[in-house]
UniProtKB/TrEMBL annotation:
The keyword Cell division does not apply. It is a single-pass membrane protein. It is found in: Cell membrane; Membrane. The chain crosses the membrane at residues 6-25. HAMAP family: TatB. Belongs to the TatB family. The lineage of its organism: Bacteria, Pseudomonadati, Pseudomonadota, Gammaproteobacteria, Oceanospirillales. Residues 65-81, 93-133 have a biased composition (Basic and acidic residues). Part of the twin-arginine translocation (Tat) system that transports large folded proteins containing a characteristic twin-arginine motif in their signal peptide across membranes. Together with TatC, TatB is part of a receptor directly interacting with Tat signal peptides. TatB may form an oligomeric binding site that transiently accommodates folded Tat precursor proteins before their translocation. This is Sec-independent protein translocase protein TatB.
Amino acid sequence: MLDIGFLELLIIAVVGLLVLGPERLPRAARTTGMWVGKIKRTVSSMQREVSAQLEAEDLRQKLDDQQKKLDDSLNKAKQDVESLADAPGKQARQVERQAADASARLDDALETLRETPPETGQDGKKDETSHER
């Protein structure tokens, strides 16, 4: 804090002795010592309080970061579960669409077969070899 050496303290004591005199110097030194002690304790207390506040703020920041990470993980897990729950419904709809498409193609093929006249051979009879395939 203050960088006072032995020589400076000696000069202050001599000046104090000359100004205050030998009767009041011990009382003044005691009073000065008490005030210096109070100031040191106050400064030390303030330093501890500031340090505690900084640590608390750091802990709050870490806690907030962990809370955000936890929330993100929870949301991702929720989305994964919802997608897994929706997957059978989506697959069922996809299978239904595929079945409907296949049914429509079969219906079109049957109609095409009904509309197509049978092929006749050279002797006027149906050519049965073409339908056996």
